[in-house]
Amino acid sequence: MSDLTASSDPATDDIVQPFQIEASALRGRLVRLGAALDEILNQHAYPEPVATLLGEAIAVAILMASALKYEGVFTLQTRGDGPVPLLVVDVASTGDLRGYARFEADRLSAAAPPAVSSLIGTGLLAFTVDQGEFTERYQGIVDLTGETLAECLQHYFRQSEQLDAGIRLAVGRRDGRWRAGALMVQRLPEPGQPPPASDREDDWRRAMVLLGSAREDEFLDTGLAANGLLYRLYHEDGVRVFAPHALRAACRCSRERVIDTLAALPRPEVEALKEDGRIYVQCEFCNSSYSFDDAQLAAVFD
Questions:
Q1: Fewer CB near the terminus (10 Å): N or C of the chain?
Q2: Half-sphere CA count of 194, side-chain side, radius 13 A
Q3: CATH number belonging to the domain at 2-249, selected among 3.55.30.10, 1.20.120.530, 3.40.50.300, 3.40.190.10
Q4: Cα–Cα distance between 138 and 136 in angstroms, integer?
Q5: What's the whole-model pTM score?
Q6: pLDDT tens for each residue of 136-189
Q7: Looking at domain 255-301, what is its CATH homologous superfamily?
């Protein structure tokens, strides 16, 4: 870890940067996404509002996952009755990301803002941590409460974790490429003797005011390094950064995984799925396609 100065020059994109505000001991994480987000959103022909909403979901999932200690896959999922009935984002402990949005084009308005109520509708927000076959899965589920996914996440922390969290999100295009930024500051339980309650409240309010002063263009600015933004916001109170975590777009699908899935199904059911004499399987996340002719299918079951 290190104290941040105006000359700090860290990696700019596709990272999670943990930090602490020294004057108040508040903890936070900054997410900056560039090429990884652009790759994920361009794997499907999403309308602009859907792509923006999925970008926000990816940033929110990273914020949430980076607050946990796990070895496996963290999954964020929303389900609702709106024109975007499903969002799914996976964040692996290795930093691998993937995301997918299911949408109904005939129910989308071209001018629809990327709001929870207009796109997802009434529904649920779920978080799952899967650490492998022999471990217990952790899951948290709350109602979608808020007009943005940031507000929904804040509601989750208050409802399920009894923690205060301030969150800012920005998703948009710069020079034709998708980018995103997200910043979360949390008030965590303090070990030992806490400072007077009045001091804690003043520190929290000040941190939220400074967080609210961050502009969308600062989150998406390709020329502003991640720690440069943190320095702008919190340098008067001192800000200490910890080792950043790298992120990348990487789907977990493979031909071997598809073979395992097919082999687990009754052969007659698989045979019934043939088109023009072949079985076709397409990954919803990365859009990769896998096909099997009769000889390859026989090998799957033999």
A1: C
A2: 12
A3: 3.55.30.10
A4: 6
A5: 0.90
A6: 778 888 899 988 999 998 888 887 777 789 999 999 999 999 999 999 999 876
A7: HSP33 redox switch-like (3.90.1280.10)
